[in-house]
Please model this.
Amino acid sequence: MTRYHTRVEQPTASFPYKIPKRLNALSIPRRDFVESMDGPGYTQSGIRKSALNGQPSDRINDIAWPWIRRLMIVKNMYRKRFSQERLEKLERMIEASNATIYSKLANCVVDLKKQDTKESKKKKLWSEGERKKHLDYITMVAAPKKTFLPPPVKRGKSMPLEALLPRIKAISSPPEFKCYRRESKEVWYKDPIKIPRRLQLLSQPRRYFVECYEGSMPQYTRAGIRQSALTGRLTDKSADIAWPSTRRLLLLKRMYKNRFSPDRLERIDRMIEASNATVYAKLANCTVDLKKMDARDLKKKKGWTDTEWKRKMEYISQIAEPKKVFEPPPIKRGKSMPLEALMPRIEEISLLPRFKCYKRMSQEAWYRNPMKVAPNALKYVITDRTKKLAVARVIPKDDE
Model:
């Protein structure tokens, strides 16, 4: 088995004990904490010094740069307003943002040289020839559309209607036959001459459409409202949902109570009553009794009287006084004795009682024998810090 030996500082004249090097190093206070007095140092603007002196990681440094698209928008917007130095700073910021890992992952790197060449190659104003060509095209497009008449239909000589009526009747009448036979005996077969009753009913025009409107389109008023919307009947659900909520009407009444006239306030009351009567207000359990609300407003407490003011001010002055500090009563002790006189009694108490055989007090697993000492406690070496803390505190004595 291999044994690991701890590095130990050699004893000195002031402290004749061996101390492990690690404990000695840990007992020394940190330099930065000692230099910055009680806590971390701050600049005049309130920034922590460690934030200025610290070095951010590459990831945090990359994410701190603005988005390339934003920088390009700023450059395009203020190209003619910013100075040359400011534009150069913007370009340097764009280059730095291009170099970040986020812009490369998003594939949104911008080449400034190509951008400048594109802007320089922008199309200039039209020449006289191009201007003339574009104006000719605009005049051609703006000209009124030509209407091309259909070619005339070649017809024969016209005949009077009386001469054509016999032929029309012959064509319109069903063919003459003695007995009509059903062409198929299948169930799905329909008679070609017989028209179903449903089709006959659907073929008739609607009455209200013919009676209400003169033309084929619905009529509108001068204000642009459809007449059917004015003459139509609302359902109860639509009428209930059209009213505002009672909460909004109550807020309106409270806000403009001192500004509106009594007539206007009465109208708001009537609107609240109508909103209370809706099915939605009853389902939400938010109906309001206006009589009780008015009674509450009348019963509101007015300003304090002189006696109330006096009582309140006395209580405030009592609260504002500084807090009384009650010192604890002095402890009655006997006459003090020197430590040398007490040592015999202390040594007598500290000794274990004399007995022949020591018996274990408990059989539990967690029980520890008070006679045994831990092996690490025998090897322990006190540090400078512990020794410093072990010194008794000096209690200042009163001058009295």
Notes: Residues 17-119 form one domain.
